[in-house]
Design brief:
single chain; alpha+beta; Arc Repressor Mutant, subunit A; 5-stranded antiparallel β-sheet; 5 strands; Antitermination regulator; GAF
């Protein structure tokens, strides 16, 4: 596959189809805060949206070590991980920081351990495009065809746009994941605080809700009253602890 030439307009995938794919990816990943879940949504959406692409996978690395892998088809999931060592299309794309591919794996001398396994699983063509996620994680999105010469220069252009867009979306997912983890740690610390934990227990009993929801009720009250969370908790605990007049 020659990745250096500029493809004729007639060979490119439709602009509307590519735009629809990017729009669907944005809608599907915009609210996620789980990186593995986002990878799974990415490969499924890509496979379903691109004609000529039979399967899609993603390989992610952090400091050279596996940081996530996803496959639109579980049977072919091993093609995207590191079990075949550094000689795979995904690793080539990551290492070289450029798109790599093969029109027909039957005539492909690269990736000697990976290619026979891919062909045995029905893969005949591949495009891997590098994806820059953040300063810790990089990856590659892998497009697989079940027929030789099915992946065109149009797929190459789409893969480049897809890699750029996916990198931005996945970076946002990782940021939300980090923020959610920090918020969870803060919540755990608050729930361990005596008076706040007590107040949360009161709300849980009154409303029959989980601790996280009860803590949100306290936060909402503190925001509405413009007073510290601890003060709201103290008032609530004081109120329910006050003996009732007979």
């Amino acid at each position: 596959m020659n990745l250096e030439t500029t493809p004729p307009l007639t060979e490119t995938l439709g602009v509307l189809e590519t735009a629809a794919l990017l729009r669907e990816l944005t809608a599907g990943l915009i609210a996620l805060d789980d990186f593995d879940e986002a990878l799974s949504a990415l490969v499924r959406t890509t496979r379903d949206a691109l004609a000529g692409v039979s399967w899609c996978g993603f390989t992610a690395l952090r400091a050279g070590e596996p940081a996530g892998v996803a496959a639109s088809d579980a049977r072919r999931g091993g093609l995207d991980d590191l079990r075949y060592g550094p000689d795979t299309p995904a690793m080539d794309a990551i290492r070289r920081r450029e798109m790599v591919g093969a029109d027909d794996l039957a005539a492909e001398p690269r990736w000697p351990a990976w290619t026979p396994q891919a062909r045995e699983l029905g893969v005949r063509g591949v495009i891997s495009a590098p994806v820059d996620i953040d300063d810790q994680v990089i990856g590659a999105i892998n497009l697989y065809a079940g027929e030789s010469d099915a992946l065109t220069t149009g797929h190459q252009l789409t893969a480049m746009l897809l890699a750029e867009h996916a990198g931005l979306l996945l970076a946002a997912v990782r940021d939300r994941e980090r923020r959610a983890a920090l918020a969870g740690e803060r919540d755990a610390s608050l729930l361990g605080d005596g008076v706040i934990g007590h107040a949360v227990g009161v709300i849980m009993t009154q409303r029959g809700c989980p601790a996280e929801d009860a803590l949100d009720v306290l936060r909402s009250a503190a925001s509405s009253l413009s007073i510290p969370l601890r003060e709201v908790a103290e008032r609530l605990v004081s109120t329910v602890s006050r003996p009732r007049d007979n």
